[in-house]
């Protein structure tokens, strides 16, 4: 593992030392060393958030499953969500990130969002208990903690008790093209209000005649209806949850997985999102979005959001908008332009009443306070 890199391949800091903890005592010793400490899972951040020039803790060795019950699972922070899903057949955490190759501790440190967040909130909203080692090197066991969505500032998560709910045997996935962006966002609002679909997401990709908005939904029951206007796929629940695994394999084969990813993520109030998306897409081109790039839109009810450290606009519905951009390798000018673009659009998002979800390539390349 290259500890001076992350999935963004934009920021590079070489740690003074790397510790691979085997137990809590190793984490405690690191925090009492007097050096600046940063915890790292799979390094899926895009702006150096899991890097440091101090002491880096590689948490991926802490991946034990301590307990499985009908309504919960107790796991180490270094286990991936993919491993959690496979460990509990017939059960599932209520919220999963689209990509399962990230650690529990990593996503709980920032929030954790998925296509079911409009029903269940964040991954952090579905934690029943947490073991955290604070920066004084003390182990704290608690029902809730400032470490949830705390970006490591309140301590390092070492274990989590995650809520489980029944998982369906099969999932019916629908992908339907929309004629324009307004049709996509209107449909997403209607669907989360009706509560008919468990999973609701929007994607905007480059089409043959301009931007192609795609509505993606999923029904978590066996008797889901057909839809002649959509591409319909029946999958097992595990196949659906890990649906990006094939895409990852393809991008690794082409090498694009290792290209720079200056991603951008922010929450926009419902009242501003349509105008904001229109401006962004007027500005972007397929070339400036990059190979395999896309725009994601997640509408989320704010009522289920209960994590105190996680801040979103004060409206009943907010939208995560994510610009998943890919820069060509060895093209520093294009990469610099994309990062500068991020800076501009973060500023515009804040002006529109938005908040930053600081896992992407931030202007400062560090988490927002």
Task: Give a description of the structure.
The strands form four sheets. The protein has an eight-stranded antiparallel beta sheet with strand order 14-11-13-12-16-17-15-18. 25% of the residues lie in helices and 27% in strands. It has helices at 24-31, 81-87, 104-108, 117-120, 181-194, 237-241, 245-254, 270-283, 286-289, 332-351, and strands at 17-19, 37-40, 55-58, 65-68, 72-76, 91-92, 127-133, 139-142, 156-163, 165-166, 170-177, 199-207, 210-219, 231-236, 264-269, 294-301, 317-324, 355-356. Strand 4 and strand 5 (72-76) form a beta hairpin. It is of the alpha+beta class. The longest helix has 20 residues, at 332-351.
Keywords:
27% strand, Vanillyl-alcohol Oxidase, Chain A, domain 3, eight-stranded antiparallel sheet, five-stranded antiparallel sheet, 3 domains, 18 strands, alpha+beta, disordered C terminus
Quickly describe the structure.
25% of the residues lie in helices and 27% in strands.
